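Exam review. A common question shows you a sequence with its structure tokens and asks you to describe the fold in words. Practice with the pair below. Do the first one on your own.
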Amino acid sequence: MRGLTGKAVLISGGSSGIGEAAAARFVAEGARVFLCGVDAEQVAEVVARLGAAGGTACDVSLPGDVEALVEAAEAALGGIDVLINNAGVAWREPFLEITAEHWDRLMAVNLRGMFLVAQAVSRRMVARGTGGAIVNMASTNGLKGEADYAHYNASKGGVLQLTRTMAVELGRHGIRVNAVCPGYISTPLNAQIAASLGEDFVAAYARDQIPLGRTGLAEEVAAVYAFLASDEASFVHGAELVVDGGQLAVM
């Protein structure tokens, strides 16, 4: 992609799944990458294996952790040009059984954490005055409802509204803001959820719900992250790009 070589990229939730694939893609594009995850050992392993500039453990729902993360990233990278705001959690839970504690925890990571990281990075981008690109992790669940994911659906709908509002306010500072909306992607998190639904669940879901007939790959979402962060997407702003194999086209 044009314009990624030498860019300073911070990736939250970058030590597994889509985030790890994104880190690998940006390193391959010649960017300098700093990443975070909740497990310090896992972060260190991914940083070493990919040759990233650095990484740290971080709970994105905690303001103190987020400030420490962004400061560490700036120190390692000399500033931040691109934020891949990727950290998130998910689990199945019927609407009638969701506890206030579970609701609050999911929102704390998926929406509060998205806001905290984006705000901390945006403030520094504005202060530098050189613009930048931010890509938030949303989901097809932010565009349509899915049973047993009321809290997750609501959090991702919130991410889309956050993205649009950030785009309205930050565009004048030369900061492009967009969101990615993956459908069913093969990740460790989704594998863990699918394991509770039976060994045939993934194959049946792909056959019945995804016109391309398969689940997506983390690397395919990483490619969209790279596109939206690159100069190829220089006039793409305030958008949500769906990566779902046609899933939302099914009636």
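Now try the second one, then compare your answer with the model answer below.
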Amino acid sequence: MMRQTIFNTNCYSSMTGLGITITALVILILCSAFFSGSETAMMALNRYKLRHLAKRKHKAARRSLKLIRRPDRLLGMILVGNTFANIIASAILTSYAEQHLGHIGIILATILLTFVILLFAEIIPKTLAALFPQQFAFPASSILAPMLFVFYPVVWTLNSIANILFRLFGIKIKQSEVTEALTQEEIHSVVHDSKGKLGPRNKNMLLGVLELEMIKVEDVMIPHHKIEFINLSADISEIIYQIIHAEHSILLACYDNIENIAGIISTKRALRFITEDRKPTYEDILGLLHAPYYIPKNISIKNQLINFQQKGMRFATVVNEYGEIEGIVTVEDIIEEIVGEFSDTYQVDTHITTQADNSHTTTGETTIREINRHLHLQLPTEGAKTISGFIIDQLQEIPVGKCCLKVSHYTIEVMKVENNRIQLVKIRQN
């Protein structure tokens, strides 16, 4: 009877010890998982989004931002907690296994604990934290902040020792609370990859602003053959007719052709002059002319926009290195590079039509930039500026009829050619 009582007591004691051991191990592994996940979540937080939320007085964001401003202290405290949790868990399980299973128990406990820690205290929490950093970091910050305050002496001591070792090996650690600024190319990539966050219209406008430095005047100018001008060689009635029916508010005034520029004329000002009682004379028209403003074709539209602003002008004549007229550019042409989608709202003719089969037709004189912008394509913009010039560069000849070529992921079909000029083109994505 005595032996039975002792056996039951030992069995109960063993079960109690096992229960306490398992409970302790579960708590310690959960602590280890918390520290592991917190480390990944804190380091994966979007600094710019965090600052935005902090400015809006989001308490968790402010707390998290304060913690990651000194990552050495935060990581030191997390690693201290994580290491202690793992070491204590290992000691408890090893002691229990050795007591009940002997030396083989130590080996089994090591294997089992390694598997459990890797799976439940490292892989799973870190994966979840990497996928949902904000959801993990914000609640964790409420625990990490007071812990950092309590364990600061230990963390400071460990960091100081680490810094001394770094200096011994010639490694300089710079403490900075300022997040490295994004470059223009990185901002461009962020905006380009924003998908549906910004919306296509806002996205195009932001990309237009970022690309102002890269776009040259020759990319947006009205080319030589499309320039509207007032012919001063005509008689006065014809000149007045041209002014009244002009499509633009500022025009070049030339003798016979675009190469003989006399000046620029404001049609709005001329119209007010024409509405007076007397009929204006040829000399009156010449008195309305202003000296033309010439600019090189390879200047960026960003710099030209600044030049327009400084000079108080809206119209410039574009010339090449030989002084020959290449085209004209206005403030509106440059602004259209930024708010091109806004112009489409008012149905400005873009010469691009989408067909039922998702292909697109356009005129040969449509610029590649315009095609890429409106159709969200990625045709190369180096070299030729228009789709007609691009096709000729690819074929190395002027097509005499319908033909087709493949470029990257696109098929470009010449639909119509007249007088050695490509009139109509069809583009479809393969």
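Model answer, second protein: The longest helix spans residues 2-44. The two ends are 89 Å apart (CA to CA). Full marks require stating both points clearly.
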